[in-house]
Write a structure and sequence with these properties.
globular; Arc Repressor Mutant, subunit A; 8% strand
């Protein structure tokens, strides 16, 4: 009987692969944690809330279909629905029915929502630069962006940010 150490059907990660994989996982976890702490302490925002408000802020007329917003913010539809419910109660967004699809809805950023994300954005982006981009050359950033695009294309065929 084969044990986990002697099973030849398992293709283990070598040291280079393991360092790349674990490094990505750890860096993501620590960056998310630290960035969220800053957003929470200074602006009362969680990462997912900031992401949703930021995507709406960048969208034409501050509005997006909920399904598109869920994809961009990497949230389940039910997770986004709960978040939009809360943001709607807080006056940060409103929902509008889609005229061409009776089942579809838009999330629309309110003036209060725009003010909230604008207040957090410059500081958040400064932290992203300090904790991530400033550690790389522009060429390394471009290479990393190309690599993530390749990974995402495999994971989410047909979805483009």
């Amino acid at each position: 009987m084969a044990t986990p150490d002697t099973d030849t059907t398992v293709r283990h990660l070598d040291q280079r692969e393991l360092a790349a994989w674990r490094g990505m996982l750890r860096a993501y976890a620590y960056l998310q944690r630290d960035l969220e702490q800053g957003l929470e302490q200074r602006h009362g925002l969680q990462n997912s809330t900031y992401e949703v408000l930021m995507h709406l802020s960048d969208a034409p007329d501050g509005r997006m279909r909920l399904s598109d917003l869920a994809n961009l913010a990497v949230l389940s539809r039910s997770g986004l629905t709960r978040l939009i419910d809360r943001l709607e109660k807080e006056g940060q967004v409103v929902r509008e029915r889609c005229e061409t699809d009776a089942r579809g809805y838009y999330a629309v950023l309110t003036a209060d929502g725009r003010q909230r994300v604008t207040a957090a954005r410059a500081e958040y982006l400064d932290e992203v630069r300090e904790r991530f981009h400033d550690l790389m050359t522009p060429e390394e950033q471009e290479l990393l962006g190309d690599l993530w695009t390749r990974v995402l294309d495999r994971l989410e065929p047909g979805l483009k940010p």
